[in-house]
Amino acid sequence: xxxxxxxxxxxxxxxxxxxxxxxxxxxxxxxxxxxxxxxxxxxxxxxxxxxxxxxxxxxxxxxxxxxxxxxxxxxxxxxxxxxxxxxxxxxxxxxxxxxxxxxxxxxxxxxxxxxxxxxxxxxxxxxxxxxxxxxxxxxxxxxxxxxxxxxxxxxxxxxxxxxxxxxxxxxxxxxxxxxxxxxxxxxxxxxxxxxxxxxxxxxxxxxxxxxxxxxxxxxxxxxxxxxxxxxxxxxxxxxxxxxxxxxxxxxxxxxxxxxxxxxxxxxxxxxxxxxxxxxxxxxxxxxxxxxxxxxxxxxxxxxxxxxxxxxxxxxxxxxxxxxxxxxxxxxxxxxxxxxxxxxxxxxxxxxxxxxxxxxxxxxxxxxxxxxxxxxxxxxxxxxxxxxxxxxxxxxxxxxxxxxxxxxxxxxxxxxxxxxxxxxxxxxxxxxxxxxxxxxxxxxxxxxxxxxxxxxxxxxxxxxxxxxxxxxxxxxxxxxxxxxxxxxxxxxxxxxxxxxxxxxxxxxxxxxxxxxxxxxxxxxxxxxxxxxxxxxxxxxxxxxxxxxxxxxxxxxxxxxxxxxxxxxxxxxxxxxxxx
Length: 578
Fold this sequence. Notes:
Layout: H1 2-10, H2 19-28, H3 35-61, H4 64-99, H5 101-113, H6 118-126, H7 133-144, H8 149-155, H9 163-177, H10 182-235, H11 242-267, E1 283-284, E2 287-288, H12 291-311, H13 318-348, H14 350-360, H15 366-374, H16 380-393, H17 398-406, H18 412-427, H19 432-485, H20 503-511, H21 515-544, H22 547-570, H23 573-577
Antiparallel strand pairs: 1-2
């Protein structure tokens, strides 16, 4: 950042009027950069990219004056995007912290209610995978450096934009000073759960409009532009270059679609349970698949379809190519899907298991509790406890069996359940009230998760069917009809070419358009649909909190949209459907 600091020294002081706000945004976004250096860096990067904006606009528009104006607009937009990026990141982090803050506060209340030392209770929560744990870890680190617990907790309030997180930190400080109570944490947790439920329902009402706007922006605007190029070039003698076609379909329209998807994501409630999962959690020959290998497998699976589209785009060859593409993804994702459903069944059984365990631990040993849960009929959960029971009966320690049980599943909630049992075993405390409270918190959490899933499901279906089916169907059909109405023709009997034999060149020459414009239009539309599938898949992954969901959606939507587009401009699909 030394170069940015030098640039900051050259800029006037008026440029840094919003320095205090940027400093707060950077701090809450966990970006370790000074505000003056960051603003100078945003300005410098925008200046560096401005010649590229001008060159791209000049190639697409063919007019230097218009290109200069577009470059200035892009410069301002790029600087504004960089300038406000920390604010949006900080807001998203605040939503992630609020998503599982009720569970984190419930865990603190349980540990304090068990008479655990306050700092030890905070340490236990800091080791969990809550987004709020980041603030607890930082506060404990400050305490180890000599700061008092209340001042360390109060200081962390300046590192978040969530007012609920600020209140939670203040409530924890009051609990340490003896002026607050566990009941205060419980009331704040209940208030947060009710607020999250209301916000989720409000989001469902707003996002319906955004989902419809996405389908409209992604289909109508590109379709009208295609009509403008084909009809306008035929009758208005417009001079249109292939660069303009590529700039529109590979840059402008994808940016509009990305802006709508970004608005949907910015308004969406964060996934309950913490941060994004990037691991695929799948093994081949005993070794876990990594991100790079997953990308390589995806590229290999898409290769047959890419070859068909590039070298032999006949409509009757699309179905076999799609089938060949689907087989490796079915083999890859079927065990992953089975594992996800197993974790889901495991988590659904947790509240009942917690209530059951709370009735067993008072006046009973942990060995008997494990045996009872193994025979409780909780499906996958009982199978795991049966394995722990066999381990204890074979001479293993109870704590070792519970630790192995805790690491046997990727479910964060199951890990927390095993952690409570471990705490009961180590302290010997009466865990009846604690487990019942944990069960109640978990049931409230499940209710919020179900509400969020119900709200997002309709939007995900709209985005999927719109991006993978409706948009390519409209674009392909409009392309076909526009060419036909303008005097062009298609092969009806197959053969895979877009225009009739010899018709495209003649018709393009008569209309004042070059063959290269038509040669660029179809691959540009293919690129546009591929980018659209990529953007919607990224949104799916962010909605679910799992990268694997995005790859699965991309594996389905990318070949499906490409195939439907080829079919739509090769044969009369709309007429057949009608």
